[in-house]
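can u do me a favor
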């Protein structure tokens, strides 16, 4: 063979090898980001080209998820103490600049996977990004002039609590606060170390904060407080007029602080959160998220992001950059007047470690006369993880459901019983909760009831009420139950409704609410939907999809003939006795297969 030809051949082979290795690398990395839990409430994934975590029902779910029991001890077992204790911060020029993703070369892949387990994010990627990396300005243009006048704005203390946070993420949070906040609005930064055991979080941290241009203190607790009590420790020491809380793995963007302080300066009972953007837990790329989402919660009191309703969008047409009220806050990032924080009962100190405090504060603020708001001009990024790296002494279930039981017992009136009825884990912990002091606080502050909250703060809610049907929708001839699609271990994307065996134990997936207006809703803000005209199908299948208040989601129950009539098409809900056929709508014909019973289930 002539040498020239041989060289081309070798080159071709090398070229293909590189491609194959490249593909293998991408494939394994993608697998890494898919989460490793099978629990129903953990199955989140960042889909290709998607800017948000979407669960299998199409609902945006970013925080407040259930995380499975101390998988920690299992997963970090084979990581050496030395590795955990080592600070490997090693910034490379321009890595992650402007919020771009960090790509780790394949040769480092093994170590990257190992390090990932320590914090449940790509520590190696984080360690390559500078503490003062650049980020785009995500604000609408109008925001800039809206908040150009800083005179008279109150000063804030920024409080960051952490437990075994990575050096690079913790300090990138701190530096982003310093770099992107007007100096005159920052009183101080308070770091609260919640019993971390990493060496680099002791003297090296104390040394590092000495040189910062904003007075920064590290408060330390030598017993594990949990984030609620750790925040209280910080709040008690704060000197600013406003308290601003941040998680320890955030990045603030330019102009983030002004809208929060401006709102509180006008009225101290406003509690304001930024829009929480997404720092990818794998690549550390920064992605702007939806400005038009608000925070709420599902029937199990797990926090959810939901799209703003049409009512609100209409109301806001002329005020698009002004902060707007939200039923609940995510919990980690918000500003609140310090006096108001304490007048209102700060936090429930009986709440442990993690979870529920965001709903407790949200209900308390709203029901006792204040407001929880989101400022669309304020953007802060946060690393959303798919599982938690911390230990949960006593078990995550015990902690989270104990906290949620307290929220329900103190603030939710009749709806507490609804919560306990369908959440045996919380019910089990119900009697262990001493809530007298919090009930007295509610009394003292003369707070309104939960019904007022639902009616006024979240009229689009999908909870039962006395003027709504709540229960099962039973297909008469087969005695099977209408269900929303719930995966049995797998991701269901069709969204088709299901008709399945009625569970002898009350099952949330088989419960529906029907409002006076004929909207059939279920948990997660999902509604029963059928198209009004479908050219391709004479008997279009019925879906369960995000509620949108459109006529295609309205139904009428005909009590005489037990029909469920779809208003927009005039057709009837029908099912067959085959299991795999979703219910559909067909011309009403009084056929038995169109007969449904509304089986009321008591919920209080
Ligand atoms: C969300 C909130 C979080 C908190 C939580 C419910 C956002 C972005 N995050 O979960 O702030 O409201 O819901 O409780 O809204 N930490 C401690 N001690 C502990 C455990 C945690 O100091 O025992 C720190 C931790 O280092 C972090 C912060 O508390 O800085 C929040 O913890 P997380 O990041 O695990 O919570 P996240 O974002 O999943
Ligand atoms: Mn967090």
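np, heres the sequence
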């Amino acid at each position: 063979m002539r040498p020239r030809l041989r060289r081309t051949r070798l080159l071709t082979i090398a070229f293909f090898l590189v491609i194959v290795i490249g593909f293998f690398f991408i494939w394994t990395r993608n697998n890494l980001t898919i989460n490793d839990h099978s629990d129903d409430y953990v199955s989140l994934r960042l889909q290709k080209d998607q800017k948000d975590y979407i669960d299998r029902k199409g609902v945006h779910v970013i925080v407040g998820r259930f995380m499975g029991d101390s998988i920690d001890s299992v997963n970090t077992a084979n990581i050496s103490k030395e590795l955990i204790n080592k600070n490997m911060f090693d910034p490379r020029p321009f890595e992650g600049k402007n919020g771009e993703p960090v790509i780790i070369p394949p040769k480092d892949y093994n170590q990257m996977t190992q390090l990932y387990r320590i914090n449940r994010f790509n520590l190696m990627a984080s360690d390559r990004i500078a503490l003062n990396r650049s980020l785009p300005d995500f604000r609408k243009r109008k925001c800039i002039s809206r908040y150009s006048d800083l005179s008279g704005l109150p000063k804030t203390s920024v409080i960051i609590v952490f437990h075994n946070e990575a050096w690079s993420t913790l300090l990138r949070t701190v530096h982003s606060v310093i770099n992107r906040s007007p100096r005159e609005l920052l009183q101080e930064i308070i770091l609260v170390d919640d019993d971390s055991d990493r060496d680099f979080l002791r003297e090296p941290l104390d040394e590092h904060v000495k040189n910062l241009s904003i007075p920064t203190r590290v408060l330390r607790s030598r017993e594990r407080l949990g984030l609620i009590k750790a925040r209280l420790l910080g709040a008690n020491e704060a000197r600013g007029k406003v308290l601003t809380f941040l998680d320890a793995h955030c990045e603030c963007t330019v102009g983030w602080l002004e809208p929060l302080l401006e709102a509180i300066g006008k009225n101290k009972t406003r509690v304001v959160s930024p829009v929480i953007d997404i720092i990818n837990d794998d690549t550390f790329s920064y992605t702007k998220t939806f400005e038009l989402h608000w925070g709420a919660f599902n029937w199990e009191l797990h926090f959810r992001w939901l799209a703003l309703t049409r009512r609100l969008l209409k109301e806001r047409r002329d005020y698009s950059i002004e902060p707007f009220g939200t039923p609940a806050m995510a919990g980690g990032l918000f500003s609140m007047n310090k006096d108001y924080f304490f007048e209102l009962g700060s936090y429930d100190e009986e709440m442990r470690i993690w979870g529920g405090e965001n709903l407790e504060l949200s209900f308390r603020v709203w029901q006792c006369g204040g407001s929880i708001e989101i400022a669309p001009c304020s953007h802060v990024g946060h690393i959303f993880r798919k599982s938690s790296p911390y230990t949960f002494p006593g078990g995550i279930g015990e902690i989270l459901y104990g906290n949620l039981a307290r929220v329900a017992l103190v603030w939710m009136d009749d709806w507490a019983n609804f919560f306990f009825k369908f959440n045996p884990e919380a019910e089990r912990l119900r009697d262990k909760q001493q809530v007298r002091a919090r009930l007295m606080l509610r009394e003292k502050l003369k707070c309104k009831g939960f019904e007022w909250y639902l009616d006024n703060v979240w009229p689009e809610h999908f909870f039962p009420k006395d003027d709504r049907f709540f229960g099962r929708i039973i297909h008469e001839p087969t005695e099977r139950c209408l269900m929303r699609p719930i995966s049995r271990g797998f991701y269901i994307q069709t969204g088709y409704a299901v008709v399945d065996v009625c569970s002898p134990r009350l099952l949330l997936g088989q419960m529906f609410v029907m409002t006076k207006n004929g909207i059939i809703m279920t948990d997660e803000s999902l509604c029963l939907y059928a198209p009004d005209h479908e050219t391709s199908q004479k008997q279009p299948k019925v879906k369960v999809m995000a509620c949108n208040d459109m006529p295609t989601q309205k139904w009428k129950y005909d009590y005489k003939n037990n029909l469920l009539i779809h208003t927009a098409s005039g057709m009837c809900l029908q099912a067959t006795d085959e299991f795999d056929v979703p219910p559909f709508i067909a011309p009403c014909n009084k056929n038995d297969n169109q007969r449904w019973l509304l089986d009321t289930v008591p919920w209080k």
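The radius of gyration is 26 Å. hope that helps!!
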